[in-house]
Structure formats: structure tokens, C-alpha cells
Design brief:
Largest sheet: 8 strands, parallel, barrel
CATH architecture: Alpha-Beta Barrel
Helix content: 25-40%
Bound molecules: 6-O-phosphono-beta-D-glucopyranose
Number of domains: 1
Shape: globular
Strand order of the largest sheet: 1-2-3-4-5-7-11-12
Low-confidence stretches: none
Distance between the termini: 19 Å
CATH topology: TIM Barrel
């Protein structure tokens, strides 16, 4: 038993992390555009007023805006069947409030989609990937204000109509569950509370944050309904950052704390988006935290009517949970957690756990019984450019090989898996640190953290490896 016929092998990127051209052809400023570069130890700063002389990585990124034809040709050479990218809301509605979409922005994505289709690559579009218009943050404090729902739907309507007949797969909000954490404030919800200066230590108001998340749930459900009305062949999915969490020991206290964390951080959002209602276990959390979700009369019906067609998630690592407060912390994308003595971590402290992917796929499929897709996975690493221009990224091949192997095991276990799009199939800016140095790609880009580099693209060793994996439908992993 192999991966299914037509399995969607490909790669994933996001507009703010690759496009650059941040103010070109009428694009407005997004929340990503006000974040400076940072490093593993020095958090990115959030600067509501742009500073002269400061480096803002999203402003140039890898200039996908002007290189997309070359990049998609490379993806086609690897044999991609699908390319996951996001549309920058600010290219279509620069402040989020215009009545008519920006034609130049729509035209850019016409080009990207046409290029994909030319090679038989299926576009998979994330509608909102960490780049809400900054004007909406200033005026409404982002998603904390219900009025943003209508503006988002206007944006969805514009793109659903424009790309009808060309695109089949959509995702509403990237890693929507980052809104369950303080770090998700600006990143995911466009909320900027007074007192926030840097990305890893944002001023937090959980009431506002969970209310914002509720507005995203409603917006997502409305988008699903609208998509189906506009084109009944559209498939719309949710997207969750899955940080699998194990109890550190079999002490029942650890098991219970682990269950609580998994529910709140990993399951809550998809329980709403897949099952169409708030799970009972969140009532207690809201009660104890003094959070009250304000709903309008037909919100609950909307959530039911706008359930997603498929489930997607990112998977990079796993963590542990314990009731013992003295235990060593691990790092990770937004989550963190407790270090697992059985696992090794990446240079950024993310604990590598391929078997955890098999476990997670099984858990998700058992719970929802709808098709799944791994839309992010990969190793952020320091790559070295050899004198002859090659990049020997055997560590990345090893990481991906082990994960694909476990994905296959999950398929053998009976999981309905649609596809796999490793993250940052071409090097791009890191979301958590704002670095270029944390590279994920099969394609190296000569762009560096001091802003230098001429954007030359080079195939890494992993390029040929992935090409072989795709050609053999995941069977040849050597
Ligand atoms: C996910 C995001 O959290 O992980 C991406 O959807 C992000 O936007 C990716 O880039 C990897 O994280 P990082 O911080 O290494 O870029």
C-alpha cells in the first residue's frame, strides 16, 4: 500500500515571507511589514512607525514577486503536484476597507496561478497567513473588532470570484490556533496592545484575544459557505499548528495537564472548524480565566453551516507537559513546552520527532474522519554555501526522509492523507525570528540578514532527493 494515486506532493510558502515588493503596485502595509529582523536570541521588534535605516525582512524577502516564474519552474522540475502559497490581503485591499479590489494585486496572483497551471501544479491558497492589513490594526485593533469579519468576507469574495475555475483548494486562516497564545496577538489576530514592543513578549489581553478568535471562527465559516456558493467544486480547509504534546511521565498529574494543553492549544480551534461548535471543555477554561465570548444570534448556526471540507496542519516537533514546575523548558514555534529526554532538537531548539507525526496523523484522523494534509513540515537549519556553489544539506534530507517514512506508516494505519507540502520549499524569511539564516528550502537563495545578496537561486542536495521521492510517489527515500 502506497500513498494514494494523485497524492499532492509539493511545497509551501507565505506571501509576507517570500514576496518582498512590500509597497509595489498599490500594496498596503501589513502587520508583517512593521516587524524588524531578529535572531534566535534577539526577538524581532514591532515598530508601528517604520524606522529609517532599520531592516524589515518582509520588505524585500526573497523577491518572489519578481522571481515567481523562475521559482515555479524549479518547483515543476522537482515534480510538484501542488504549490501552497498565500495571497497578501494588502495587495488586494491595501487598507482592508476599499470597496473595490486593487486590480494590480489580483493580476499578480493571476500570473502565479497561471504559471502553476502551465506545469500542471495545483494551487493551494491560504487566504490569511500572518499578514492582516496594518490599517485594520490601527483602526479596529485587528480581529478583536467584529467589523473585520465583513471586510475579510469582501476580500474572500473578490478572490473566490477571480480565481474560479482555476483554483480548487483553499485554507482560511494559517495556524488559527496561534490565537490561543499571547504570541498570536499581532501575528495572527492583528491585535497590538499598548505596551507591546517585541514579538516574543507581547502585551496580552486574553478576553480580547479569544473574542478575536471567535470572530475568525465566524469569518472562516462564512468563507466556507461563500466559497461553496461561488463554486461548488471549491474545497476549503482549516490549518492548525499542531504541537503534539506528551505527558512527561505517567504521573496522572502530568497526563491531565497534558490533556488540558492539547485540548486548548491543538484541538480547540479545529473542534470548532470541523465539528461546527465550541467544545464543552473550553467552558471551564473560559470560566476560570474570566473570559466571556460575545456571540451574535446566528453565530452558532453559522459555525455549523461553515464546517471545513478537509483538515490541514503544520508539524515540526513535539513537546512534553508536566505538573512539575522545575523542569527544563524546550523551545518551539510559538508553543514551547518541556524538553523530551528521548529527542534531539534543531539549532533553534525545536525537538525533532518523526514518529510523533505518525501518532498525530492517527489522532487527528480518528477524531474527525475527514481527509488530512500535512501543509508544513521541515528543518530550519544553517546552510553553508560551498566554494563550488553547492549546498550539502544531508541533515535536511535525513529529517524529511524520516518524516515521510512515518507519514507512510500512518497511511498504512488507515489515515486518509491527501498531500504533503514541506515548508519553505525555497528559502524564505523565518516567521518567528525574522531571519534568513534559518533556511528550510530545497532551493537556496542568496539573500542574507544584513540585507545583502543578489537573489540568485541554487539547487541544494535535497532538491534531487525530493525530486526522486515525488517521482516514486514516496517509495524511494534513499
Ligand atoms: C509556521 C508558519 O509556524 O512555521 C510559517 O505557518 C513559519 O509561517 C513556519 O515560517 C516555520 O517557522 P519559522 O519561525 O522557523 O519560520
Amino acid at each position: 500500500m502506497a500513498f494514494k494515486e494523485g497524492f499532492l506532493w509539493g511545497g509551501a510558502v507565505a506571501a509576507n515571507q517570500c514576496e518582498g515588493a512590500w509597497d509595489v503596485d498599490g500594496k498596503g502595509i501589513s502587520c508583517a511589514d512593521i516587524c524588524t529582523g531578529g535572531t534566535h536570541i534577539k526577538p524581532k521588534r514591532i515598530t508601528p512607525v517604520l524606522e529609517e535605516g532599520t531592516f524589515y525582512p518582509s520588505h524585500e524577502a526573497i523577491d518572489f514577486y519578481h522571481h515567481y516564474k523562475e521559482d515555479i519552474a524549479l518547483f515543476a522540475e522537482m515534480g510538484f503536484k501542488v504549490f501552497r502559497f498565500s495571497i497578501a490581503w494588502t495587495r488586494i485591499f491595501p487598507t482592508g476597507e476599499e470597496m473595490e479590489p486593487n486590480e494590480a494585486g489580483l493580476r499578480f496572483y493571476d500570473g502565479v496561478i497561471a504559471e502553476c497551471l502551465r506545469y500542471g501544479i495545483e494551487p493551494l491558497i491560504t487566504i490569511s497567513h500572518y499578514e492582516i492589513p496594518f490599517a485594520l490594526t490601527k483602526k479596529y485593533n485587528g480581529w478583536s473588532d467584529r467589523r473585520v469579519i465583513g471586510l475579510f468576507i469582501r476580500y474572500c469574495e473578490a478572490i473566490f470570484n477571480r480565481y474560479k475555475g482555476k483554483v480548487k483548494y483553499w485554507l482560511t486562516f494559517n495556524e488559527i490556533n496561534t490565537g490561543t497564545m499571547g504570541m498570536g496577538n499581532l501575528l495572527s489576530l492583528g491585535i497590538l496592545n499598548e505596551g507591546t514592543t517585541d514579538f516574543s513578549n507581547q502585551a496580552d489581553d486574553p478576553q480580547k484575544r479569544f473574542q478575536g478568535l471567535h470572530h475568525q471562527f465566524v469569518a472562516s465559516a462564512m468563507a466556507v459557505k461563500l466559497a461553496h456558493e461561488i463554486d461548488e467544486t471549491y474545497k476549503v480547509g482549516c490549518m492548525i499548528a499542531f504541537s503534539t504534546t506528551y505527558p512527561l511521565t505517567c504521573n496522572p498529574d502530568d497526563v491531565l495537564i497534558c490533556q488540558e494543553q492539547n485540548r486548548r492549544m491543538n484541538w480547540f480551534c479545529s473542534d470548532v472548524q470541523v465539528r461546527g461548535e465550541y467544545p464543552a471543555y473550553m467552558d471551564r477554561y473560559f470560566r476560570e480565566q474570566g473570559i466571556h465570548i460575545k456571540m451574535e444570534e446566528n453565530d452558532q448556526d453559522l459555525l455549523k453551516e461553515g464546517r471545513v471540507d478537509y483538515y490541514t496542519f503544520s508539524y515540526y516537533m513535539s513537546n512534553c507537559a508536566t505538573a512539575d514546575e522545575g523542569r527544563k523548558k524546550a523551545e518551539g514555534n510559538m508553543f514551547g513546552g518541556i524538553a523530551n529526554p528521548y529527542l534531539k532538537a534543531s539549532d533553534w531548539g525545536w525537538q525533532i520527532d518523526p514518529k510523533g507525526l505518525r501518532y498525530t496523523l492517527n489522532e487527528i484522523y480518528d477524531r474527525y474522519r475527514i481527509p488530512l494534509m500535512v501543509v508544513e513540515n521541515g528543518l530550519g537549519a544553517y546552510d553553508e554555501l560551498e566554494e563550488d556553489g553547492s549546498i550539502l544539506d544531508d541533515y535536511r534530507i535525513d529529517y524529511l526522509r524520516r518524516h515521510v517514512k512515518e507519514m507512510h506508516e500512518a497511511v498504512l494505519d488507515g489515515v486518509d492523507l491527501m498531500g504533503y507540502t514541506p515548508w519553505g520549499c525555497i528559502d524564505l524569511v523565518s516567521a518567528s525570528t525574522g531571519e534568513m539564516a534559518k533556511r528550510y528550502g530545497f532551493v537556496y537563495v542568496e539573500k542574507y540578514d544584513d540585507g545583502s545578496g543578489d537573489y540568485t537561486r541554487r539547487k541544494k542536495k535535497s532538491f534531487a532527493w525530493y525530486q526522486k521521492v515525488i517521482a516514486s510517489n514516496g517509495m524511494d527515500l534513499d
